[in-house]
Design brief:
Blueprint (H helix, E strand, L loop, with lengths): L5 E2 L2 E2 L7 H5 L75 H21 L18 H18 L1 H7 L4 H22 L8 H15 L6 H12 L5 H15 L6 H23 L9 H22 L1 H5 L8 H6 L4 H6 L4 H25 L7 H20 L13 H17 L3 H6 L3
Antiparallel strand pairs: 1-2
Helix pairs in contact: 2-9, 2-10, 3-4, 3-5, 3-7, 4-15, 5-7, 5-8, 5-9, 6-8, 8-9, 9-10, 10-14, 10-15, 14-15, 15-16
């Protein structure tokens, strides 16, 4: 990646440090006014955008690497009332309802924003126009978007390729969201994660609020601030992702799938809710907005569950177990069995059930991909097909996810891309997807 330019005298390099932000008692002041007036008191803060082995592209609608880190119920079978209630990062404090029910309230809220946008101001989201009309210096804002694109091109190549089919406006907006998600993930899973405290995450969340209110701290923030001013994107999924980072700081076990589902929503499902307003919904769709958001959420959950199953051994070596404790016990297994890393018949049977659940969420996601804007379907289909094949790889490894890493080889990746491209025109075709699942 090319070195980044100077902004108000600060040299921005490829590797940045977050430690000063993590240990400082006060967050740096946000930039008031237009983007070019990037003046700050205190230390300029950057989060590392350097290489990271398992960073997952936003094209997948999410999927944070679990590394560094109930009763089974069909997602599509849930039934909820249509009312939308206030939802906050404290959702985990509610115990009277399942996590799926509480998360669904966020889905309803995001869908309502899109509906309101359609009824109210008519933003021409499909126009291939230059950004920067609301900022004093459009050229500098376009540079900010370009830098976001460079990060995506360097560390999420398949995702970046898929975005090339989108309009210029959509493409740049998705890049901005991707970079924010990557930076947030780096807080607890990056090279400076040992410096991160709950207070640091509180300051990061306050910084997010400033971004949504038009007070960016740096060029990446400026791109996101402009994006959320143009699309019906709500702050709640972003705040919930920060809550997922907090969860990683304080929690290394999950009693049941209800708890794990909430974690998967926080760190991965949220990205789907962030992305749908930008990727767009097909104007000819007859599906409800809520069902499309549900599919995006399901894909994030599926990807994160796949990450967890892939990284069991790696997580165990860090003392972390991202598997439902009650289901382990029901299978006659314990954390000690995972730490020993021996594949047994009990383990194989347990893994078969976990993989089946992940595939159910992928099935749910498939139903909504075709309802996205046609230009946005290819990268989403590519992600879905490639991630499903990781589950196949776990099976091919005889369920040894302790010492063998499941991955999709380059040949299979290359073969999946044209299939995904075809599906982006044909819509979800069950017979075609089955062809690439094995």
């Amino acid at each position: 990646m090319n070195s980044l330019p100077k902004i108000c005298g600060y040299e921005c390099s490829q590797s940045f440090s977050f430690s000063s932000f993590a240990t400082s008692e006060a967050a740096p002041k946000a930039v008031e006014g237009s983007f070019p007036a990037l003046e700050m008191s205190g230390v300029l803060v950057w989060v590392s955008c350097g290489p990271k082995e398992n960073i997952n592209p936003l094209v997948s609608f999410a999927g944070r690497s679990s590394s560094g880190e109930r009763n089974q119920r069909r997602f599509s079978g849930l039934s909820f009332s249509s009312g939308v209630s206030a939802f906050s990062g404290a959702v985990a404090a509610e115990t009277s309802r399942s996590s799926e029910e509480r998360v669904y309230e966020v889905v309803l809220k995001q869908a309502a924003l899109v509906k309101e946008n359609k009824r109210g101001t008519n933003i021409a989201l499909d126009l291939d126009k230059e950004v920067g009309t609301d900022f004093a210096n459009g050229d500098l804002l376009n540079v900010a978007y370009d830098r976001c694109g460079e990060v995506c091109a360097e560390y999420a190549k398949t995702f970046y390729l898929g975005t090339q089919l989108m309009t210029s406006e959509r493409r740049k907006a998705i890049w901005a969201i991707y970079v924010w998600c990557r930076r947030t993930d780096e807080l607890v899973d990056g090279p400076n994660s040992s410096h991160i405290t709950p207070g640091a995450l509180d300051r990061w969340e306050q910084r997010l609020t400033d971004v949504f209110e038009g007070r960016p701290y740096d060029m990446y923030d400026a791109a996101l601030s402009h994006t959320v001013s143009k699309y019906p994107v709500d702050i709640q999924p972003f705040k919930d992702m920060v809550e997922g980072m907090r969860m990683d700081l304080r929690k290394s076990r999950y009693d049941n799938f209800d708890e794990l589902y909430l974690y998967c929503y926080y760190v991965a499902g949220t990205v789907g809710l962030m992305s749908v307003p930008v990727m767009g919904i097909a104007p000819e769709t007859k599906a409800s907005t809520e069902s499309i958001y549900n599919a995006a959420l399901a894909l994030g959950i599926a990807n994160q569950l796949t990450n967890i199953l892939r990284d069991v051994g790696e997580d165990a070596r860090r003392g972390r177990v991202y598997l439902p404790q009650d289901e382990l016990a029901q299978a006659g297994l314990s954390d000690d069995d995972i730490f020993r890393g021996k594949v047994t018949e009990k383990w194989r049977k347990f893994m078969k059930g976990q993989i089946k659940r992940a595939r159910m969420f992928f099935d749910e996601a498939e139903r909504g991909v075709a309802e996205l804007n046609s230009a946005s379907r290819w990268p989403v289909w590519a992600s879905l097909l490639l991630y499903r094949q990781i589950l196949d790889s776990i099976e091919a490894n005889d369920y040894n996810n302790f010492t063998k890493r499941a991955y999709v080889g380059k040949v299979k990746k290359l073969l999946s891309l044209p299939v995904a491209y075809g599906l982006s025109f044909l819509g979800p075709q069950k017979n075609l997807t089955k062809m690439v699942k094995r």
